[in-house]
Amino acid sequence: MSNTTVETTSAPAIAPRRGSRSESLTAWARELSLAPAIILAIIVGSFVSPQFLTANNLINNVMVASSVLGLLVIAESIILISGYFDLSLESIVGIAPMVAVWVVVPQATGGLGWELNPYLAILIMFVLSAVIGTITGFLVARLKLNAFMVTLAMLILLRGITVGISGGKSLSGLPPEFLFLGSARPLGVPVQVWILVVVVVLAAVFMGLHPVGRKLYAMGGSSAAAAAAGIKTTRLTMGIFIFGAVLASFAGLMQTGRIASATASQGDGMIFTVFAAAVIGGISLNGGRGSMIGAALGVLLLGIIQNILILAQVPAYWIEAIYGLIILIALVFNHFATRRARRGRELLA
Amino acid sequence: MQITDQAVAIAVEHVSKSFGPTRALIDANLIVRQGESRALLGRNGAGKSTLIAMLTGLLEPDAGEIRVTGEGGVDEGPGADSIACVYQKSTLVPWLSAAENISLGAYPTTSIGAVDWRAIRSRAVSLLSEWGYESIANRIVDELPPLERKIVEICRAMSRGPKVLLLDEPTAGLDEGGVRELFIQIGRARERGVTVLYVSHHLEEVFEVCDGVTVLRDGRDVLTAPTEGLTVDDIVVAMSGEPIARVEARTASTGPLSDEIVLEVDGARIGSVVQGVSLSVRRGESVGITGLDGAGHIQLAESLAGQRPLDDGIARIHGAPIRSGQVDKAIRSGIGFVPEDRHEGGFVPALSVEENTTLTILDRILTRVGLVSGSKRRSRYDQLSTAWSIKAERPSQAAEELSGGNQQKVVLARALASDPEVVVLLHPTAGVDVTAKNSIYETLHALQASGRSLLIASTDDDDLAICDRVIVMSHGQITAELSAGYSEHELVSAVQGGTVTASIPTASTPPAARAPKR
Question: Measuring CA to CA, which of A187, A314, A334, B324 is 20 to 30 A from B467?
Answer without folding.
Answer: B324
